[in-house]
Specification:
Length: 505
């Protein structure tokens, strides 16, 4: 067995990570498959008269026509009608706007949740916060699951906002809890568990969203409501795990409870060395006042690691991963794959993301954070270059469409190698206990804000520039490769005290 790893800490990691990371990953990917079904349902409520007219045109189509051709026939008749054509266009615009808000409001919720991380983790503790915010999952899952039956797309949007707030809080609390219960030699590997479960839950949302599973007219409300199940798992398991020993000692000054928690996690009463290390951190904390937001921004020894943490989060979101995943379906269609084959290729890409995140979990304590981050970013840059070249040439060189598929899948491999997982826990390694909640709040909020802006800005830029939109990401990737190489410290196998000391020089 790996040194420091035992069944109890394994149980605590599962209890702390599965219910929390799942909300983040699953709700990121779950709307991809049922998009057409949800927008047609919304259309039925926003402009029912247009839908009724469309059905009339469908009924008028010749009986010999296939279903797809009947739809095309009805659409062309509708658009050719001087009265109904403009109404149909206006209706489609309204539905697209509602859909955009349904997708984007998850990120807005994430920003809101991210800003609350510091407050919740300090007041309720890491474990206490993780347990309490499952109330938001219950509210969000209920709103989303019942939206169709209540005939209210507003409920769907409200549910996405609430589940987004939960995901934003989880993105700060879960990596903090995982980092603080981990032995120093496993801190990176166990921090990567958060991203591993995100990738697994995205893959699960893709599998469940297939049209022969829950990606159906009757199935999609259940697809959205399933998000409650991991919350039930967390509520059933996490109460049996201890609170973070660091939180108990450094925030609550409860040495006995901290030692008991640490003994439970390590499976031994021989925890004196680790307790001494935490007491040293406690003594050094007494020399500095409680870290406020103002202190974080004005004190150089705190501002430097905060900038690094924020830049790592931006490197993750601005590298183009969400756009590559979003664009993947179009790329697979360009390569001549049918709808079913495109779905399989997307699942293949999701599977590759999971496998590579698992490999990075194994490598991270051997290769180090900085090395894996650089390898990942360089790989993404090379694949973005290859993707751009293939998208520009595939019409004249048909084989390049298959090169584009390979480039997208290998782009995901590069992302999963480092940029996908490292930023989430890296912020917890750069700060002592006094600054960790505030820094995590800021870094998580920056991540969700960047996620929101990329989601909002990609489509307009792509419409303006076409395939050249990937040039923007190539420039950003080069910038972050240089920044990580020059400014980011290696934290592998170093105590928090050793890491923070270099920023005080």
């Amino acid at each position: 067995m790996v040194e420091g790893l035992n069944p109890r800490i394994g149980f605590a990691i599962a209890a702390g990570a599965i219910g929390s990371s799942f909300q983040h990953g699953y709700n990121t990917g779950v709307l991809n498959a049922p998009q057409d079904m949800i927008t047609s349902w919304v259309k039925g409520y926003v402009c029912p008269e247009v839908v009724t007219k469309f059905k009339e045109y469908m009924a008028d189509a010749p009986d010999a026509m296939e279903a797809a051709n009947r739809t095309d026939y009805a659409m062309s008749m509708m658009n050719g009608d001087s009265e109904w054509g403009p109404q149909n266009t206006a209706c489609d615009t309204s539905c697209t706007l509602i859909w955009s808000w349904t997708v984007a409001i998850f990120c807005i919720g994430g920003m809101m949740g991210g800003t609350l991380c510091g407050f919740v983790s300090s007041r309720l503790g890491r474990k206490g916060g993780l347990l309490l915010i499952n109330v938001l999952v219950a509210i969000g899952a209920t709103l989303m699951g019942l939206a169709k039956y209540a005939g209210s797309y507003q409920m769907l949007i409200a549910g996405r906002l609430v589940i987004g707030i939960n995901a934003g809080l989880n993105a700060g609390l879960a990596p903090m809890y995982l980092s603080e219960i981990s032995p120093t030699n496993l801190r990176g590997a166990l921090g990567t568990v958060y991203q591993l479960i995100i990738t697994l839950s995205i893959l699960l949302s893709q599998v469940l969203g297939m049209n022969n599973v829950l990606g159906t007219e009757d199935g999609w409300p259940w697809l959205l409501a399933i998000t409650a199940i991991p919350a039930i798992f967390q509520l059933a398991t996490l109460p049996f795990c201890p609170e973070s020993p660091k939180y108990l000692l450094l925030d609550k000054d409860d040495e006995m409870a901290a030692e008991a928690a640490l003994s439970w996690l390590r499976g031994t009463i021989e925890v004196h060395d680790e307790m001494d290390e935490m007491k040293q951190e406690q003594e050094s904390m007494k020399l500095v006042p409680k870290v406020t937001l103002k202190e974080m921004l004005t004190n150089g020894s705190l501002r430097r690691p905060l900038v690094i943490a924020m830049m790592m989060m931006l490197a993750q979101q601005l590298s183009g991963i969400n756009c590559a995943i979003f664009y993947s379906t179009k790329i697979f269609k360009l390569a001549g794959l049918g709808p079913q084959e495109s779905q399989s290729a997307t699942l293949g890409m999701g599977s590759m993301n999971v496998i590579m995140t698992f490999i990075s979990l194994v490598l991270i304590e051997k290769a180090g954070r900085k090395t894996l981050m650089l390898i990942g970013l360089v790989g993404m840059f090379l694949m973005t270059t290859l993707l751009l070249a293939s998208l520009l040439t595939f019409e004249s060189v048909p084989v390049m469409s298959y090169v584009a598929i390979a480039a997208v899948i290998l782009f995901v491999v590069g992302f999963a190698t480092g940029p996908g997982s490292i930023p989430w826990f890296f912020v917890t390694e750069l700060f002592a206990q006094s600054g960790r909640p505030t820094a995590t709040s800021i870094a998580v909020s920056v991540n969700w804000s960047a996620n929101f802006l990329v989601g909002l800005g990609f489509e307009p830029i792509q419409m303006l520039c076409g395939s050249w939109v990937f040039m923007v990401f190539m420039v950003i990737q080069v910038f972050f490769i240089v920044y990580v190489f020059l400014a980011v410290p290696e934290t592998k196998n170093r105590t928090i005290d050793e890491i923070t000391a270099q920023f005080r020089k």
